[in-house]
Amino acid sequence: MEIGDIPKDTGGAEKRSSARKRVHWRMLILLNAGEKKPGYVVDVSEGGMQLQSIHSFPTGSVLDVAVFVPDARKAGSYLPTRFQCKVAYQVLKGSEVVLGVAFVGAEDEALQRLRAAMNIS
Questions:
Q1: Were 57 and a residue from 61, 71, 85, 121 both cysteine, which residue would form a disulfide, CB within 3.0 to 4.6 Å?
Q2: Does any domain span residue 67?
Q3: Which of 82, 74, 85, 77 is nearest to 47 (CA)?
């Protein structure tokens, strides 16, 4: 999908089944060829995340995402945590792409780190 094919941000509210929290965490989208596409997690919930990047991915794609989750036990430290995510939507926001992704079979340890970080950040 080309950037031109991504709908512009309409500012509409999205529907989620769990509460979300605004964050600014670094992340990498890990591709099969060993490539890493950087970006940020801009909000998070127990069901998924909203990512911001200069890279787009087709809706329905499954991504391997490494998130630098703040360590709830050690201020200033981060725990690289991997999530499999399915792209639910994407919109163009300025020169960047905002991707809404849902977790696919997230491991308990990853979700525990996420919950702990949501309480501190």
A1: 61
A2: yes
A3: 85
- Total domains, the chain: 1
Q: Which residues contact 15 (CB under 8 A, 6 or more apart)?
A: none
49-105 confidence digits (pLDDT tens): 999 999 999 999 999 999 999 998 998 999 999 999 999 999 999 999 999 999 999
Show Cβ contacts of residue 46 under 8 Å, excluding neighbours closer than 6 positions: 18, 111, 114, 115
Q: What is the CATH number of the domain that holds 66?
A: 2.40.10.220
Q: What predicted TM-score, i.e. pTM, was given to this entire model?
A: 0.81
Question: What is the residue range of 66's domain?
Answer: 18-120
**CA torsion, points 21, 57, 96, 23, in degrees to nearest 10?**
10
Asked if residue 6 is part of any domain, the answer here is: no
Structural domain contains residue 5: no
Query: Alpha-carbon distance 121 to 118, whole Å?
Result: 6
